[in-house]
């Protein structure tokens, strides 16, 4: 038997609760690896699923948890053996396949990477998909030619998990960072992470002109909608924008003007199905660029599995800063 946060669909909606399940209830997987999950976390996508505020879950019942770190108990995959520490981010876990907000998870071994030696399982879940996505964004900007010492880099949704790690990673790389946030109480937190200035998200969140004053060398956007459109309109000639989220909306009410008149490049960032080589590159760089002090500043809180539901509601209601880790064992 094992404990799991189970989401069950009913005529009245979705019931979420910690249940004790038989190991035989775990779904099958190709080249399966059975993992004793030590830590997980609550991501925005997990919160959408747990609170039933978005169509995340594609099969019922579902164990949410798109991230997990733990110890291999059984393996039919050639890359992993019993006793290995492994890490999961995405690949449909918590959406189409049972995820990691549970004591046990059976996963396709092709979805896993080895836990980097520099990180404990808690470190890895403090970073989670949010920090890994932020690293993918930073790598995309660097691969596109962004170098320190140019115009500032804008980070939207700055007080969230992706935004927090993006600020820390950019600042550690020598970039000037301007943070956009609607939380006036978080300005000092964002500056401690490395932001030189914090602007009100309202200045980007309404419809704007197709081309605006050139302010930024690059952008990491996790908000979408008008925020992303205005960010693109304020990027300098030849600048780069990475889009990785939709906190404001999935729409993109923009003009082609920044792209054809200023040669701005818009790069989509997908963390869910990114190939293993890219994941390993991102996690390797996270190990090089993040201190434990920074990790703990962004994710100071650890909760038990039973508190995952309240944490998800707090996240959806905008009452969370950074990241929260879930201790499974």
Question: Your description of this structure?
Answer:
This protein is α/β, with parallel strands linked by helices and 329 residues long. It has two domains: 2-115 and 299-327, Alpha-Beta Complex (Quinone Oxidoreductase, Chain A, domain 1); 128-268, 3-Layer(aba) Sandwich (Rossmann fold). It has ten helices and 15 strands. The strands form three sheets. Strands 3, 4, 5, 6, 7, 14 and 15 form a seven-stranded mixed beta sheet that branches. The longest helix is centred in the middle third of the chain and has 23 residues, at 121-143. The chain is globular.
Outline the biggest β-sheet: 7 strands, mixed
**How many E strands?**
15
The CATH class assignment of the largest domain is Alpha Beta
What CATH architecture label of the largest domain applies? Alpha-Beta Complex
* Overall 3D form: globular
SSE string: EEEHEEEEHEHEHEHEHEHEHHEHE
Task: Give the full name of the CATH homologous superfamily of the largest domain.
Answer: Medium-chain alcohol dehydrogenases, catalytic domain
State the share of residues found in helices, binned by percent.
Answer: 25-40%
Rounded to the nearest angstrom, the distance between the terminal CA atoms is: 14 Å
Tally of distinct domains: 2
Radius of gyration over all CA atoms, rounded: 20 Å
Beta percentage is 25-35%
State the low-pLDDT regions, or none: none
């Amino acid at each position: 038997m094992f404990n799991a946060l189970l989401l069950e669909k009913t005529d009245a909606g979705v019931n979420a609760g910690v249940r004790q399940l038989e190991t035989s209830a775990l779904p099958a997987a190709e080249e399966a690896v059975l993992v004793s999950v030590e830590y997980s976390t609550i991501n925005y996508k997990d919160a959408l699923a747990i609170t039933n505020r978005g169509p995340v879950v594609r099969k019922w019942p579902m164990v949410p948890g798109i991230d997990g770190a733990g110890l291999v108990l059984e393996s039919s995959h050639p890359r992993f053996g019993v006793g290995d520490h492994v890490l999961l981010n995405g690949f449909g876990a918590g959406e189409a396949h049972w995820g990691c907000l549970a004591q046990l998870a059976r996963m396709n071994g092709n979805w896993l990477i080895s836990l980097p030696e520099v990180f404990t399982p808690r470190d890895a879940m403090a970073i989670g998909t949010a920090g890994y996505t932020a690293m993918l964004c930073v790598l995309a900007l660097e691969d596109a030619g962004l170098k320190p010492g140019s115009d500032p880099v804008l980070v939207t949704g700055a007080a969230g998990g992706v935004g927090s790690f993006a600020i820390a990673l950019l600042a550690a790389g020598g970039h000037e960072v301007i943070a956009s946030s609607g939380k006036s109480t978080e300005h000092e937190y964002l500056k401690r992470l490395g932001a030189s200035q914090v602007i009100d998200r309202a200045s980007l969140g309404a419809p704007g002109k197709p081309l605006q004053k050139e302010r930024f060398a690059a952008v990491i956007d996790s908000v979408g909608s008008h925020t992303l459109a205005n960010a693109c309109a304020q990027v300098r000639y030849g600048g780069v924008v990475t889009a990785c989220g939709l906190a404001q909306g999935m729409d993109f009410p923009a003009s082609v003007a920044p792209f054809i008149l200023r040669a701005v490049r818009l790069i989509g960032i997908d963390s869910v199905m990114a190939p293993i080589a890219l994941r390993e590159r991102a996690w390797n760089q996270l190990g090089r660029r993040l201190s434990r002090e920074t990790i703990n500043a962004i994710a100071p809180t650890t909760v038990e599995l039973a508190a995952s539901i309240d944490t998800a509601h707090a996240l959806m209601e905008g009452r969370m800063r950074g990241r929260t880790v879930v201790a499974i064992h």
